[in-house]
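Quick one, tokens below. Sequence please?
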């Protein structure tokens, strides 16, 4: 099992970060069929067979933790790069 852990600090409002999180969750759903499920105002769970993840945020940072099963491990680099780029672009 592979794990992706990304933390990105920000200076945005919680509303702005929530919009970014929603946009990123939808992008991951479209590209990798990760089903988003908001579990609180500041956290969205991302799931699919062989994948579990959590994108959560507060006033200071966004944390993304995704566990990839054996079959999805091949996509670790691509998914990680895409998430890092999206966070950097939107939160910088």
């Amino acid at each position: 099992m592979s794990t992706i852990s990304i933390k990105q600090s920000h200076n945005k409002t919680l509303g702005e970060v929530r919009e970014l999180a929603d946009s990123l969750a939808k992008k991951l759903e479209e590209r990798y069929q990760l089903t988003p499920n908001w579990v609180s105002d500041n956290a969205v769970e991302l799931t699919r067979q062989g994948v579990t993840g959590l994108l959560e945020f507060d006033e200071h940072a966004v944390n993304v933790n995704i566990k990839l099963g054996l079959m999805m491990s091949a996509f670790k680099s691509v998914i990680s790069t895409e998430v890092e780029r999206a966070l950097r672009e939107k939160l910088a």
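The mean pLDDT is 92. The longest strand covers residues 2-9.
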